[in-house]
Amino acid sequence: MTLQHYLVISAILFTLGIFAVLTRRNAISILMGIELILNSCNLNFAAFSRFVTPPEDISGQIIAIFGIVLAAAEAAVFLAIILAIYREFGSIRPNEVDTLKG
Amino acid sequence: MEFTLKTFIFYGFALMTVASALLVVTVRNIVHAAFSLMVTLFGVAGLYVFLQADFLAATQVIVYVGGILVLILFGVMMTSGRLEMRIHIERGQLLLGGAVALALFMLLLTVIANTPAWKNRIDDGTALPPTTEKIGELILNGPFLLPFEVVSVLLLVALIGAALISRKEVRD
Amino acid sequence: MLLSLMIFIPLLGMIAVLLLPRESEELIKRVTLIPLALAVYLFISYDRSTAGTQYVVNAPWIDAFNIQYHIGIDGLSVTLLLLTALLGPICVIASWRNIEKGIKAYMALFLLLETGMLGFFAALDLFLFYVFFELTLLPMYFLIGIWGGPRREYAAIKFFLYTLFGSVLMLVAMIAVYLNSGDPGARTFDIPTLIALASTEGHALNNLNFQIWVFLGFFIGFAVKVPIFPFHTWLPDAHVEAPTAISVILAGILLKMGTYGLVRVNMAMFPLGLDHFTNGIGFWGNSLALLGFINIVYGSFCALAQTDFKKLVAYSSIGHMGFVILGLAARNDTGITGAILQMFNHGVISAMLFLLVGVLYDRAHHREINGFGGLGTRMPVYTGITTLAFMASLGLPGLSGFVGEALSLLGAYDEFKWLTILSTIGIVVGAAYFLWTLQRVFLGNLNPKYEDLPEINGREILTLVPLAILTILLGVWPNLAIDMFRESVTNLVNVLQAI
Amino acid sequence: MTVSLISLILLCPLAAFAVFGLLGLANRRFPRQDYLSTAAMLIALACSFLLLREVVPEPETHTVNWVSLGSVTFSMGFYLDSVTAIMLIVVTLVSSLVHIFSMGYMHGDPRYPRFFAYLSLFSFSMLFLVVSDNLLGIYIGWELVGLCSYLLIGFWFEKDSAANACKKAFLTTRVGDVGMFIGMMMLFTKFKTLSLYGEGGIFALAASQLTTGDMVWLSIAGVLIFCGAIGKSAQMPLHTWLPDAMEGPTPVSALIHAATMVAAGVYLTARMFPILTETSSLVIAYVGGITALVAATIAIVRFDIKRVLAYSTISQLGYMMLAIGAGSYVAGLFHLTTHAFFKALLFLGSGSVIHAFHAMHAHGHDDEHEHDDSDAHGHEHNEDSDSGHVLGSEIPPDQDMRNMGGLRHKMPITFITMLIATLSISGVPFIFSGFWSKDAILAGVLGRAMEWNSVHHYILFIMALSAAGITAFYMFRLIFMTFFGEPRNQEMHDMAHESPLSMTVPLLILAVLSLPVVNTLWFNAAYVKPPPQPHLHAPAHAYIAPDTKGGTGLAFSLFGVSEAVAAEENAGHDTHGTHADDGHHGHGPAHTIAMVLSICVAGLGIFLSWLFYHRRTLSAESVTTTFRPIYDLFWHKYYFDEFYDGVLVALTVWKARLFAQFDGTVVDGIVNGVGVVTRDILAAFTGAFDNRVVDGIVNRVAQVTWAVGGRIRRIQTGAIQTYLFVVLAGIVLLILIFRAL
Lengths: 102, 172, 499, 741
Fold this sequence. Notes:
The complex is a heterotetramer.
Chain A: H1 3-23, H2 27-51, H3 59-89
Chain B: H1 5-26, H2 30-50, H3 54-80, H4 91-114, H5 132-141, H6 145-166
Chain C: H1 2-19, H2 25-31, H3 33-45, E1 54-62, E2 67-73, H4 75-95, H5 103-122, H6 126-135, H7 137-147, H8 152-180, H9 191-198, H10 208-225, H11 234-241, H12 244-269, H13 271-278, H14 282-285, H15 287-305, H16 309-330, H17 333-364, H18 375-378, H19 380-393, H20 400-415, H21 417-423, H22 425-442, H23 458-476, H24 479-498
Antiparallel strand pairs in C: 1-2
Helix pairs in contact in C: 1-3, 1-5, 3-4, 4-5, 4-12, 4-17, 4-23, 4-24, 5-6, 5-7, 6-8, 7-8, 8-10, 8-11, 10-12, 10-13, 11-16, 12-16, 12-17, 15-16, 15-21, 15-22, 16-17, 16-20, 16-22, 17-19, 17-20, 17-23, 17-24, 19-22, 19-23, 20-21, 20-23
């Protein structure tokens, strides 16, 4: 169990998250992709905290906790927006919400 | 590295995380995807345990699984009206997205493999003291007090904002 | 420091207005009093015996382009700062009952506008000068476009595009000056430095051809603001559509920004270019005076034909600003002093006129001059104040309008005999349209429609009295204002006559 | 002492006005404004008398810097010489009397306090004008009296005629003022000062610096300054406002439009005396002479009592101008003084008559007013049946002389005092002041004519003489129509009554002032001396009269006035303007001739008037019919008003409309057109002329931008995922590139 194990897992999660964000046509799926990305980040923080910094320094973990909090906030706002958009457009497919189209 | 139970469990968690994450992005049924995400989150929590971040693991389970995931399910239900909403994916987009993701992944792998500072960092298995008390000390009586307060305000604002956005317009 | 405080207090006030609830109106009113108090303090403590700038603040701002936050005041600026600071609270009081929608946004924009104007008059760095110049544009656009009359959008866009057109030319000229001000690294936007460089023998800025073009660039930019024929057509539209207080600011301050810029930049910085347009030789040598003459006569005649009260006052503004141009074109201290006095006095008097039109409009809900009649019996106090303002505007001696006009003409006659003589037509026509208006609105039999028109109220009198006092005071004792800028003008004239 | 006295004189009326202004702003009125204003005037009057004694042979100036610039300074100040002192007396005296008169006349007017406030403001302005030592100060006072005149003519502004008249007065005088201002600009440019007196003043500089080459320029400047006087003193061709100004209350007509303000033009011309050249003098003299004659002829045919007096005023002012233009400085000013008193008396007397008739209206109803109106028209029919409806010829019934007659029994004081004034203005010899002043003018003109052997001055003398005769005729016509004969309108006659004490006392005082003895108090040779005229040169063919002594000189020396006139005439011989030391030598025969002739024409005028309007041996109607074209010309006031209204005013308004149209359509049209063109037409235009137009390049740039923009904007899909995709792809690429490097 080296640092690289964790980093690879994290990279996989990150990539999958990116993939979801890029390909999904459903806003909630995109949100789930984002959650994956955030998790991969948190995992990275925790891993670096464990392996790179001295063991008694756990700043990385605290940052990860902040990350989780931010994720929670983000999810709440995201879902609220989705609800609002859904009411407005009757759809949550991002490609149908294109009022900003030039 | 010898193949102990601990290693085995680690790989198990790792596999569980990666596999369920793969399901999250591939499964067509959005409810299934959500449940897969739950598994992924659990897996990550398990990994935190391996990293001896007990408080983080607990937070992960409580906040993510208990909070965010439920929120997502709520979102699914309120927007679709039915639980089995199909996810529609276009082929071209799939290919392009896959290509970019894959490229990114390859890039990350090379970085991970080639960064010298990250090589040979092996978990020696020494048990560290529980982190909860330390985290509490650091957050409430240490350098992280201000960020903590800022984050709490942010959370509050986000919650109020979310409530404001999602409520039905009364006037208009 | 004091000066910076004065400039940015309205900005702070704007933030305060946005944060405060609607009910705290008293506070908003008082915010505008602070700059006034500071301006009065500056006016009193200003050292009248020197031509140099005072209260200077000079701090680096954008080092990469050697742009500085350089502010300071000389006699001309302090006069106009006082005018700006004085009109601020008056406009707030004047708009208090008239603006119904979005009063907070209105006040916030108004305070932003005030910062822009105050900063413009204090800026000593060309870039800063430009920034403040543009800063007034946007709030004005919204103030006309949102709170204006029925054709407000047309008027606002016209105003915006016109001024933008001018300021783009100005920007080009400004960059040209910057690029020619020295080697890379030694270039500067600093106005005093540039003035010194422009009269240094052999410097790139001290080149007739260069100065002519740059002069034109700046001139058109300011000419739109003044406005000088043929760039004036935004003015009547903007005035007619703008709410009363904004008309007051527009006529009282914004027009002065144009002429102030002419003095501060065109005259002080490009004496060679100025000489080319005012030396009295040939067409170009008379062109500036010719524009002044056209403004006077054209504005006056157009005013004579108007039946909309506000449009009439707007056109009269064009006519009166012509005297400023004529006085400046004279390039002697009589003419320039007259022009500066005329700037200040026109600021005061036209502010009064627009306030008075607003008073009538609030009551009768129209501005058609022929639709009134005999109001003199119904509203004696209002009639009295209007008569005072009209008389001041048509240049009755003893009131401030006369001094500026007379000095401008006396100065201009030295240089441009025939144009000045022809310009005096404007005096007669000016009297004609004001007296005719006075007759149509106030004299004769009372129009039965307006038998119950209420007399001017205390709040409105409060806005007018300070201006009326100033009008009389400066008419009786013009030295009060001239003391402020005599040295500055002498200095400028010396520079102009050195070439 | 002098400074404080003059300050007091100025401040008293100003304070009285300021009280009104401040209270007015507070929306209150001060009920005893009349006492306040009158008291202020009486104090000023007392101070003026003190000053009269104060004046020493050496004139005094006191100045302060008013506008100081780098290179020039405009000062404000007092200049006190004998002329100032006399003018101060005239103004304060007439003003005080008019104040007192107005207390009776204006009683009960809804704007009673305001009237007195305006009078105070006027008095201040007029006094300021009089004491100013520089052109700018005079100009300021000049315009301010114009304002007061405007306000007071329009005092009853509900009447359209009054509203029109006040505007007309202001604008007409403004035209003249602009001329004056141009003259000031010329002088300022030359001398860099507007002060008149002292070493740095215009007069000193003009005397020392100008050469014969500057004479044309100086003449133009002089005439331009005189333009101001033309406007203010209602000389031809800017006289039309004065008759209309009679729309104001009668005391105003007496004070402003007869005694003081209109005389300011004469005062100004007299002040400018030292810089007049022979050309400008001649212009002034001709303007004065023509005005005197023309206005007198118009006055013959008026029926409105106030209009008759108005034209008489114009005519008399022309006389004064003629005097100054002909070099008779003292005579002109003397006539100004005497005229101020007797003309004020005439106006106040007519006011008393109008008041008597007007009081009846106060008792009656408005309907009655209309009835009277038609009645008046009925009368009008007799005499000028086909004169038609002329602008400004609607006569209010209480001012129409055809409604009067036989009033001498009803209003004895008014009658006696007015008769004295009439005798005075007509030039009935010896005991009336008008005779002396008018005679002095005639003598002066004739003297100049004989001395210079100048045809111009002979013509001017004849004009003046004819005007004198006509004046006697129409003034007695007025007296006969108003006070003699049978009452023409019995109803009105019955209601008429003598005016209250506040009105008759001023009349009596003014009547006393119309006697020459009183005037010698301030008008004598030791007191008034004409200033030198360094730029006035006698023509080459001037005939130098031989000195003749004695003769009529003895008679004149009865009065100090004549001493002064004689001294002046004497000075006139010396064309370089040095003073004669002794009074009597140098009397030409001019005086005798002028005196005899003037007595003759005055007698003739009075006699004809008596024949026409009292004995009625001659019929005015038949004369009218015989000389119909001339009568029409007089009746229509030489068509000046028609010309101004039909041509000048119409032209101005038309031009204004044209300009405004131009502004709205052409200038604004171009602006809007540019907008439209840039938006629409330009695109089509360039499509057609793509290659040929030079602008093509510019437009091509625009086109290309447009086209490229059209394509590029597709990138802006509005879809977040596309953006994200691009961002990520970009990141990957960038990292790859940097890693490769």
